[in-house]
Structures are given as C-alpha cells and as structure tokens.
Amino acid sequence: MTYDFDVPITRQGTGCIKFDRRPELDPFWVADMDFTSAPEIIEALHARINHGVFGYAQAHAGVNEAIDLYLENQRGVTVPGEQIVHLGGLVPALSLAGRAFCQAGEALMTCTPVYPPFIGVHHDGVAKLITVDHVLVNERYEFDWDAMEAAVTPETKVFLLCNPQNPLGRVFTREEVEQLARFCVKHDLVLVSDEIHCDLVLDAEKTPHFSALELSEDLRQRTITLLSPSKTWNIAGLGYAFAVIPDDSIRRRFSAQRGHTLSEINALSYYAAEAAYRHGEPWRQQLLAYLRGNRAALDAFVAERMPKLKVIPGEATYLAWIDARGMGVENPAQYFEKNAGLFLSDGAFFGWPGWIRFNFGTTREHMLAGLEKMAAVL
Predict the structure, then answer these.
(1) What's residue 262's pLDDT?
(2) 332-358: per-residue pLDDT in tens?
(3) Is the peptide bond before 167 cis (omega within 30 degrees of 0)?
(4) pLDDT at residue 259 is higher than 90
(5) Cβ neighbours of residue 329 under 8 Å, at least 6 residues apart?
(6) Residue 29 — φ and ψ, nearest 5°?
C-alpha cells in the first residue's frame, strides 16, 4: 500500500494542543505530526470501539506479544515479560525515576539542550538538577566527558539520556552509549534512557540506533529504557509507553513511586500500540522517506535563503534545531511569532536561549510556506 503524506489534514478545532493552543499562529512547535496514523491502527481502534465496553484495562496477550516481537525484530533483544512496566507516557516515567532514586539534596544529571521535561521533573520531588552542555565537534554534537566528570557529585543518583536526542537529532553511537553507561557505573548512577524517537532514525544504515537494551549485562542492570510507539505512529494523544527495567530492585523502587498519582492506561491505547508494532512497518518506512525529503528541503532552504540561521541536519526525529543567534535579537521565537505569525519552540525551554526548534513533521507544502514566512521577515 502507498501512503500519501502530502494530504493536508484540518486539525484546527479538534482540541489538539498544536493548533488550538494559539489558533492565531501557524504552528511548527510541539512534537506531533500532521499526518493521519497508519490505517491499520485506525482499523484496530474501530474494532475495539465496536466492542462497546471501555472498563479498566490491562495489557492483553496481543500487545504483550507485539512488544516481544518488536523488541526482537527492531532492537535485537529478548526481554522477559516481568521486566516490562506499562506506562501512560514517558514524561511521568522521568518524574518517577527522580522520585524513586533521589532523596533530599541529591541530584539528577542530564546534558543540554534537551526536551524540556528533562530539566523540569526534578521539581516533582526533592532532587536538584545538574546540566552539562553538549559540544559541537566537526559539525556533530557530542558529550563533553571532561565537563561531565567535573560536574557530577557524590549526591548525583540518576542520569537522564535522550537517545535519539531531542532537539539535536543526534543518534548516539554504540561507543558513546557504552561510555555513558560506564560513567554511570563509575559514579553509581541509574541510567534512564528515553528512546521514544528510536524508530524515527532517518538514515539507519549510516547511523544505526544503539539502545541501552543492547548494553552488556553488567551495564544493563542499572538501566531503565523507555520506549513508545507514540511519536513514530503519531498516537501520542492515546497515552501509552513502556519501560524495560532488568534489575528487580530498581524496578520495584520505580514502580512503587506510581502510588495513586497516575491514572489507569486507557483501553484504546493498548490496541493502538499492538497494531503499530504488528502492522505499522510499511507506513513507518514511507514516513521516513517523506521526512528525509522534508529535512533536505528545509536544510537547503535555510542555507540558501536565511544565512542568519544555521542548522546542522539531524540524524533522527522530525525536529530541526536551528541556531538563530545570528539574527541579533533577544528571543528569536518571539520575533517570528510577532513578525511572521509563527509558533516555534523557544530554545530557552531546552536550556539554550537564542535557538529555535522547527517541527517539519507536516506536509511539504505547509513546511515550505512556514519557511517562506520566516525568510520574509529576515
């Protein structure tokens, strides 16, 4: 089957955050896409809806089997069922980890720029936050290992990793992930690896994703790997994710922090996840081809038409991280909002003021129209 990603979908008025939070602006901000989900997912949801009863739900045999097949076929690992913790989303999982492993005065550590909840979830508990900037080396963002060694303290208990990295689009290599895991062993840290974008690697043959699940057994024992079909198949609003936690003690401490604060996972989300993992691969491959085209068009447009901006092509995700400091304005996102009517993500929320994040997970026509608006006010 051929899927058409050029078809515009009207999202205004549906209660979606992306279009309805600031309806007067043209949105290229929050990380969801303007494409309908794979028809196989929609069919599975219709089938579940036709049953007509939506009581409290738990993971059924079909979704558990689909997850097993996905982990084996896409990640190359076999995971015992007891190591999987089903979740209503990945952001709550970051908060759970902070509360589970940090006492008062202890710290979470992460590298910036990074998805905003990474630098905000410590407020949910009593933890402090330590951040270290990624550094640009030969036009590629890397870890600053010396700065990380200087910043880590005996009170640091958790390292939050985003891989593939949002907003940088980096896909960290096996060597980088293994070095980070050894860093965590050396400093007695739990490594929480958010891999929500791992199925959106745009050039997997050149930059294959290396999951924390693939670490050697001794390194894997202190990891929590977070996964979800939500970003890839555009079903984030259904609220489903899962964690893989090999160590029994870490898994118990993590799960205990759920307490009574998280709602039940909804009955539909399990079936959407099952359909995505069982039947969504052809749709995903065509999506990746379309996103590669969008990325190339965006990179060329910025280079040719907006010399005050700089973008290093990402290896994954549908998010472009753009250096806008050359504009000479205090807040580039606000500038484009006021002068071009665009809603972009402000780099300050990721820890790097002066930058913007542009979501190109939309039709090429819409993306180019947004870029034209940016160029016009530059």
Answers:
(1) 84
(2) 999 999 999 999 999 999 999 999 999
(3) yes
(4) no
(5) 335
(6) -110, -90
- Report the amino acid identity of residue 203: D
Alpha carbon distances (Å) from 267 to 3, 52, 55, 89: 27, 11, 7, 14
What is the C-alpha to C-alpha distance for residues 320 and 27, in angstroms, rounded to an integer? 14
